[in-house]
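Progress against Task 2.4 (sequence-to-structure conversion) is shown through the following example record, which the project officer requested during the mid-term review.
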Amino acid sequence: MIEQSTAGIAVMSPQVRIIVSCAIIVAAYLIDFLCCKLLIPLIRKVAARTSFRWDNYITDSNVLHNVFHLIPPVTFMVALPIFFPEATQWSALLYKAFSIYIIIVACNLVCAFVNSMYALSNESELLKNKPMKGVYQMIKVIVVCVGVILIIGVLIEKDFTTLLAGLGASAAVLMLIFRDTILGLVAGVQLSAHDMLRPGDWIMMDKYGINGEVQEVTLNTVKIRNWDNTVTTVPPHVLVSDSFKNWRGMRESAGRRVSRAIRIDMNSIRFCTEEELERFSGEKWAEGLEKDGRIVNLSLFRAATEYYLRGRKDVNSGLMLLVRQLEPTSEGLPLQIYFFTSDKTWPEHEHVAADILEHIIASVPEFGLRVFQRPSGLDLLRNS
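Structure tokens generated for the chain above:
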């Protein structure tokens, strides 16, 4: 079983080498199996009892599995020169195979660690609302690219720096291939650095038919679920190069704006009569108005409307609230009703706005005013 080399040193026969190599591989994989089945659950239990959060994400992911998966190839790589001291075709092939395996497992290890950091950042108060997924995806792309280059270098027996120099010569081609990825990375950094977009934001882009909530921001796409339940995806660089409206400021503010206009028939605007002044004299909103008989009915209507708005609990009177005239047109005098509702949710906001507008329109005739609207066929029939 033992042969003598030309130098007089005892070496093992090929049969013994194969048996010992197989024994080492089996032993290494057995250690890997036992560590994954016994040691990892123990580590997770210990991490769950600590007051830290980061160790839970690392131990619950595939980080530990990939760490222990490195045991078999590393063990054999260390033992390979011992059992194969002379360079043979078989030893070179084994060296390449285990080197590639180590590179693949190492890449999986780094990617699993990046996934853990992404999950941890989603729990952080500072980073959970940032579009960080694209940045983490770019890190994984770089890791995979480096791994591919290393594997190619092992296969063709070239140095890593030599391959990088060759890639540098074809940088223009690489820029063309990874154009969208590079643009997505730059756009993701800009969106995050300037806090322009977060998952959960309501955005609008009329150019692309976008009107909904941001679901996900990745390296190459931004996914938006529109209010009609359709999903629109656009590249991240579009949000940087084009203009879009973000409603986050409204959600973070104390109210949601309502701006409606009622067109008043200018032929109905006149001075109030003595009877009208007497009828409105006891109202609180009429206090402070001149009572010389020269008060305009529209002035009373504006004062009553503003008083009504300020008295409603679902209207935030601490924000801008006014009833003002706009530029007169051929369709009457627009009277703008401008206020903010306290409830910012869409259905409740619309209900409050509709209720207020209906009340205001119904109260217009009490002041001797008329709402202007174009005559319909029924109006012409009644006047005929």
